[in-house]
Amino acid sequence: MQADRLVDTRKIMLVGYSVLLILTAKWAFAADERLSLILYSGLLLPFFVLMRWPNAPVLLMASFTVTLAGKAIYAATVNPLAGPDEIHYYEQVTTFEKLSQFMPYAMEQIQTSWMNVSAYPVFGLLYMPFFKWLELDDPLAIILFNTVLLILIVNSTYKLNASRFGYELPDPENAKQPFVIVSVIGLMLSPSLMYMSSLFAKDITCVWLGLLGALLLVRKRWLLFIIVILYATGLRDYAIIYTLSFYFLYTQKVRTAVCVMIGATGLLFMMIGPLGIINATMLSIFLFLSPNPIKFSNWEPELLLRTLEAVFMGIILMISVYQAIVYKETRKFYLMAAALIFTYACTLVLVGYVTITGRELDYGVGTIGDNMVRKKLPVLPILYTIAAYAIMWCRKIFILKHRKIQSLKAEQDRELKQQEAARVPAGGAAAPAWHGRLAGGKGAQGHGGTRTTT
After folding, report:
1. 397: which of 187, 205, 207, 363 lies 20 to 30 Å off by Cα?
2. What pTM value is reported for the model?
3. 138 CB contacts (<8 Å, ≥6 apart)?
C-alpha cells in the first residue's frame, strides 16, 4: 500500500513538474531563443530523475549529460528545417495564428481524407498546441518538444526490457540489470536519436508512439491502444508493423512473428518478385549499417557520429551471428530479432517500390526509394536491445575464458606441488636409504653410511 502511494506521488510530481517545464519554456523563449535551450536542458534533469530508471545513477547522469551535450551541438550546427517535410510542418505554425484556426482545418482534413490523410495536419494535432499555447514561433522550439519525447522513448524501452524481457541471459541473476543498463545508455547515446530529435519532423514521435502502443498492448489497455495506433497510423501508414514488432518481441511470440515474416515475404514476392526479396535482405543489413560506412562522404563531420554508430551496429551484427551459431541458448532471441527486422525491411521495400513506380522511375537491385537512415528509427530500440543482448553474451565468453585460464593455472600449480612432493620427502615419512647415505648418516639398517671424501 505504501509502495502504491509512492508511485502515485512520483506521478503527481512528474505531471506537476512537466507543467512547470512548459511554462518555463514560454518565458525562456520570450527572453532569448538560444539561451533558453541551455536553460531548458538544465531543467530537464529533475524531469529525468523523477522517472523510474535502473539503479546506476552515475552512468545514467553521465549518459544524460552526453545526450544534452550532443543535443546542444546539433542545435548549434543543424537547421531544424533541413528538408521539405520539415518546412511544411513549420509552415503550419506561421500560417495559423491561433490554435482555434488550425483545429477546424485539421479535423476537416481528417474527416474528408481519413483513408489517405496527410501527416501534416495529423502531426500538427500534437505540436501545434505546444507552439500556440506557449506563443512560440521559432522552429528551434521543436528541439524542446522532441527532447522530452526522446527521454520518453528511452524510458519506455527501459520499462519493457526491465519487466518483459524473458529471453535467456548468461547468469540471469546477475546479468539482467547490466543488460537493462546497457540498452538504456545505448539509446541515450545514439547519435541518430540525437540528430532526428533536433529536426522539425515526426520521426521521434513515431518511435515513441510505437513503444507506447506496445506498452499498452502488453498491459491489455485495449481502448487506449486503439486510440494510439489510429493516431500513429495517421503519421505513418505502417505504424502497426513496428508497434507489433515491439509487442511480439516482449511477449516472445516467436511463431507469430515468423508467420508474419513469411506472409510479408510472400506479399513482397507477389508484388515485386525475387528482386523485392533481394532488396529486403540487403535492407535488413543496411538497417544496421546506415549511414553506409564504406561511403567516404559519410565520414565528413556532419555524419561522423552517425557513421560511427553504424560501425558499432555492424560489429554487433557480426557478433550476433557468431553467438547464434555457437550458443543455442541465444537462438530464440536472435530468431525473433531476425524475423522482426526482415519483416520491417519487407515493409520499407514495398513502400519504396510504390513510391518509385508512382514516380515512373526505374526499380532495380539496391533501390530503396526513401531516406532509410530516417526510416530505420522506429526499430532503433530493437537494434539497441540486440546490442545489449550481444554484449551480455560477450561478457559470458570473457568470464568463461577467465575461468578456463584460472582452472589451467590451478592445475599447473597442483602438478608443480606433486612434482615437488615427489622430489622432497614429506615431514614424518621414512627417507629412502640412499638419501641417508648421501647425507653421511645411518642407512635404513642402522649402519653408518659411507662418506665420500676428497
Report:
1. 187
2. 0.84
3. 29, 33
